[in-house]
Design a protein that fits this description.
plasmid, Polysaccharide pyruvyl transferase, 361 residues, single chain, 37% helix, 7-stranded parallel sheet, 2 domains, alpha/beta, Rossmann fold, 5-stranded parallel sheet, transferase, transferase activity
Amino acid sequence: MYHLGKVVIQRQQVKLIKSVQKFVKRGQPYIIMNFPSNKDPGHNASWLGLAHILREVTGRLPVFTGSNADNINQIKSTPGDAPIFVCGWGNLGDARTGRDDILYRLLWKYPDRTIVQMPQTIDFGSEALAAYAKRTIASHRRFFLMARDNQSFEVAKASFDCHVEAVPDTAFGIERLKPFEADPLSLLYVMQPFGEDGVDIGRARAIADGPLTDWSNGPKGLSRMRQSSLVKAARRRGFRRVEMVAQHHEDVAARYVNYGAKILSSAQRIITNSLHGHILCLLLNKPHIAVASNGSRLHDFIGSWTGDSPLVEKATSTSEILAAMSRLPYELNGTWYKASRPMDLNPSLPAPDLVPHPSIA
């Protein structure tokens, strides 16, 4: 079956590879920090995609991976030319982390290291946190910041004295996912409790019924160390403990991504207010509706990077959800249809890069 997200996904991967190649080359050591502290498939997708992209560019495992501030001191023992890539699954400026944010600690601890904040949302909970971030970033002359939506890009460009670049979420580094076998549901709601939707989902479900999940709390057992990770590390010439831990982190992220993929595989169509729900739907070739309020970061991201895929429709209200549902394509016997007509799937059609912004120094 033809993958309706193929062109969009490939375009994001090319952009991610080109961005990473500015900081690391073949065979060069590197570090990845900020492994997800939760069991959210979307956050783990950002880590897994980043791990794939960096291994493709360098041909090797990272020399160190860390999940929290306790790991920061251990970076001292790594090669000085190893850039530090900070995974961007969270939100720069989140009031829940503030000055304890792992990025700020890295900037203060390693003023002479190249530090790259990978794509994330930038949205400060208070002016005090924004001012603190501005001072901290200004004090480090080898810091590079990537923003994953236009609003975040404009905030960073206006606020920070550093190199700023618009880059899609690193979850696209996973490449396409194969759906799992499942008893098909006609519709599934994947909704985060703190999303930007502002939509009465209860009313929507009364009209278009389907199960509801926030999917962000996978099984604890998926995070255990397994012997298979040690074997994989050895096959990649990763015989040191830090390389085995790096492989373990990658495998744990892959398990949680698969957990999320299994949930999404059970539905023919999906309604979500989650950015990573949208991205994983694209990777799985799943038609879906992205629900968010006007001016949201989710719709901004789609307009910037993925809006030309027929797999996604946007909605801002219950009535728009139902209208968007009728515009989604559907598959029948290996053929994609839209409005009861076979779709023209000419892969040679040009797909524009929807974010023309240059990097700003």
